[in-house]
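Form 7-S
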Amino acid sequence: MARLIKVLSIDGGGIRGIIPALILQEIERRTNKRISSLFDLIAGTSAGGILALALTMPGDKGQPRYSAEEIIPIYEDKMKRIFSRTVWHKIQAVGNLAEVKYPTEGIESVLQEFFGDLRLKDAVADILVTSFEIEQQRPFIFKSHKARKDPQYDFLMHQVARATSAAPTYFEPCKVEVNDILGYRALVDGLVFASNPAMCAYIEVKKMYPKADKFLIVSLGTGEPQQRRIYDEIRRWGALQWLQPLIDIILYGSSVTVDYQLKNLLKPKDNFRSYYRFQCKLDLSQAEMDNIDAANLRTLKLTAEDMLRKEKEKLDLLCEQLLK
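Output:
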């Protein structure tokens, strides 16, 4: 019997990463297995990339250090520290117009403290984490299986986490030293090209397992912002009015395009479902990636819980397939 190749993909979204984390907690509860043992590849962008790294950190005897349930409170605490700034920084940045919204020291100290000296090759399961090289203008994708084979492609986990979450306007780009003629890579958040990294993950496992013909792709979103823009309101907008809405449209458009592609590439066949997408709707205040207010965190959790109730049958089927 042909082996089933299982892939997990986690979208980016800052604090909204709490939504896929709660879905993963439920999957672990239902299967009684760690996420790293259920999937052949775990892919993530930005917050999803950090989750992929955290879920595959080695603990005792080659087992993952944390369950999804254990990661959730840590994730909340770390994000609260990452998305914080002094009054003086707010003044210097003129809100967010003159420089990046958050100081680099905060995010870098948090990630170094959490991941320590662990390296990409140390991940207990294969992971793929996206970023984008701004000087060469091309994707730069971290792969643990590649890191194990070639030290040149091995990086500290905290560097990988920093690179995938270096969202333009929020944080400075991440400068990572490499041993080649250029000497370094200037990296920003993978959101700029792969807010939904599921297609990147699917292509990667096709290369990793060239003889495989049966795949199960599980794609977790961080919420779709619900805002309709009416023609008469926007038709005379200039560059200033379009700046933030255009970013939102590009990120959302990229995500739904990948969803559309995979739905058509991996249609159900012989009573087997090959593709799952879990996504929920968010209002504008919830959609802010750095809204770390306690009330917003609570609302995001309630939204995730509501989605899990509505998607119970789909989740039941997924967990059944994951255990086969």
